[in-house]
Amino acid sequence: MHIVSLCQTGCKLWNVSVATILVLTACNVLLMLRLLHTECTSISVEPAPKPHHPLPPLISDSAVTSNASPVFNVDPHLGRWDTKHMYKMIDHALVGSLFSELSLKYSVCLATQTSLEKLHSLVQVAHHWNGPISAALFAAGDEEFTILQGYIDFLRRCYAPVRERISFQLAFPKEKVPTTSSYAEKSSQLDCLRPEASLGKLLKLRSADIVRWRLRNPYPQNHMRNLARKNCQSPHVFLTDVDIVPSTNLADGLNKFFKTELCNGLCAYVIPTYELDDRVPFPKNKTELVRLTGRGLARPFHHKVFIYNQFATNFSRWEQDKFVNSVHVSHKVTNFEFLYEPFYVAPDTVPPHDERFVGYGFTRNTQVYEMYVAGYEFFVLSPVFTIHWGLQHRKGRPSWRERQNTNNRKNFDQFKREVFARYHKDPLNMVAHQSKDNKLK
């Protein structure tokens, strides 16, 4: 009898356990369905961007509608020539709706330049920089001008910061000035969530002839820098390359800085530039950037490719500077050396970029060298910074880039003699060393 009683009790417990399991399972299913419903209704329709992608697109109800009319309502033949009549340029070919207003509000204008291949970088730059932007764009012939208009139409349609903040300037090579400003609209089907891939689709429309022409002919970097600079309307200019992305709220930080900073002489303010691994997100602040540097996921710009390019900034000292939110001078550049080429903020009264240097090599560092000879002092700002995506290695550089560097090196001897004659100073003994070398030959 005792055994039978135990069996009956066990069966009752078994039935209770099974019932409990069934009830719990049903509850879990109901909770899962509810969670799924909540997620589906609350998550944005925009997918999370990859680490190296820009901020989510700001697409407003008043976005510009794509059409086949010219994006740049200009006559390419009525632009102005550079000093050697090699490039035709057009100022303010297309002006952002808030560019004039922002130029009055902000003390610094970001000036940048690019060819077609890197145009997608404008999206992230425009999202990070709240002030006015002057962007100089290069296109060769009808083919590239058509693609350029299609992509700018796409950017303005998809991204409010591009549509509002950027004034576009144009430059064309003498032998490739477009014959018309009209274009066949090709951008309405491009994906606003994928600006880089969308640009890739348009670039495939280029013919083999124009691609070969671009490989043979160097990109006029210094012409483009001067074009972007001179179309800024704010008291100070922050001159960058298009793939140099500013830290968030940099424009507002500089605005506050220049309200109290009083330079008694010739001053330029360096914004430290770092390379960032493509696998990590853009650092929100200096603390995150320094942490990434410690993990080997970020490092000073050109550190492996050509360390002298940024070495005088003294990144170690900048990283050790106390972490405060307001923009301030971390330290003064005290070890200036030739080949230093920082990205800096200064009035547009600084010497222009010498346009005899075309392509890569001796383009930015010659201008910075002339600033130094003229008496400018360089001060490094903190906690602000700029980022270049990707950790660079020398082996990744194409051979044509070194050929351009060699050609520009030939022009440097004449350049430094002219700088000496202009300022009657030779602080780095550049001309003295050349004279000694000539005597030894």
UniProtKB/TrEMBL annotation:
Name assigned to this protein: Beta-1,4-glucuronyltransferase 1
Pfam families: Glyco_transf_49
Cofactor(s), names only, from the UniProt record: Mn(2+)
Organism: Apolygus lucorum (Small green plant bug)
InterPro entries found in the cross-reference section: B4GAT1
Similarity remark: Belongs to the glycosyltransferase 49 family.
Keywords per UniProt: Glycoprotein, Glycosyltransferase, Golgi apparatus, Manganese, Membrane, Metal-binding, Signal-anchor, Transferase, Transmembrane, Transmembrane helix
Membrane topology, from the record: Single-pass type II membrane protein
GO molecular function: glucuronosyltransferase activity; metal ion binding
Record GO cellular component, one term: Golgi membrane
Record has Endoplasmic reticulum as a keyword: no
Reactions it catalyzes: 3-O-[beta-D-Xyl-(1->4)-Rib-ol-P-Rib-ol-P-3-beta-D-GalNAc-(1->3)-beta-D-GlcNAc-(1->4)-(O-6-P-alpha-D-Man)]-Thr-[protein] + UDP-alpha-D-glucuronate = 3-O-[beta-D-GlcA-(1->3)-beta-D-Xyl-(1->4)-Rib-ol-P-Rib-ol-P-3-beta-D-GalNAc-(1->3)-beta-D-GlcNAc-(1->4)-(O-6-P-alpha-D-Man)]-Thr-[protein] + UDP + H(+)
Pathway: Protein modification; protein glycosylation
Any single biological process term in GO: protein O-linked glycosylation via mannose
Keyword Hydrolase: no
Subcellular location: Golgi apparatus membrane
PANTHER family: BETA-1,4-GLUCURONYLTRANSFERASE 1 (PTHR46420:SF1)
